[in-house]
Amino acid sequence: MTSAAELWREKLEAWAIPKEIIDQAETSPWIHPPAIFQIPVHIQDSPSHDKALEAMPANGSVLDIGCGGGIGAFALTGKISRAIGVDHQQEMLNMFKENADSRNIASSIHLGFWPALEKEVEIADVVVVHHVLYNVQDVIPFIKALDSHARKRVVIEIPQTHPLSTSSGAWKHFWNLERPTDPTPRDLMAVLSEMGIDAHLQLWEGEMRMEQETPEAMNDRRIRLCLPTSKIGDVTNYFKTNKFPKSRPLATIWWDKI
Fold first, then answer.
1. What CATH architecture does domain 4-256 belong to?
2. Could you say which of 42, 61, 186, 213 is the most buried, measured as most Cβ atoms within 10 Å of its Cβ?
């Protein structure tokens, strides 16, 4: 019988872009422009932030995995005295450090991939990981490292469908390529259950934070679709007609340390 973790891996592997499309691309489609991961001036309340705050002691510490600018950590401003950021891009970590400094929060940053550098990273009261799990095929070591680094609680936020689902129609339009619909948060819950972790799931609706129609956003979408520069006009016209939604279904998954 296939385990939940094996199913998670198989469903993520189905999102691989066919080799013949990748080979002709001018630029790697696996881009993460730092600007879209900067945090807003006012961070809105959300179930994910609420669950982290609920478990955070006064003057506590937070470990933010795949931190970007640190929205998962700095939503807890006022209750934390220390923020620890892990990311594989130095630009993201620079933003995280600047955001901590501007809030007078002590911080440390770690460049690399989780869980490869887990031994270098200190334990925190609460571990948060936002919009990372759909990039993690080998999910069990990742989750074990999250769990071992939390004193109080682990909080995960992911979309209810793969983040690239918003462009599934564009893949069909430009490449006649059908994209998958799995995995989902319930697949991740099945993994946690098999690991003996008593996790909780809350489904909710959140705003789409990325820029909708700027030239930079259109060019990023062109790159992600493996299309040449000459196709930027076609991409722009497609997304003007087929706009990204202004909100998206999200999921918060959390568990407490016993």
1. 3-Layer(aba) Sandwich (3.40)
2. 61
207 CB neighbour count, 10 Å cutoff: 13
Nearest to 7 by CA among 164, 188, 147, 131: 188
Q: pLDDT tens digits for 159-181?
A: 999 999 999 999 999 999 999 99
Residue range 104-159, pLDDT digits in tens: 999 999 999 999 999 999 999 999 999 999 999 999 999 999 999 999 999 999 99
Q: Are 162 and 183 in contact (CB under 8 A)?
A: yes
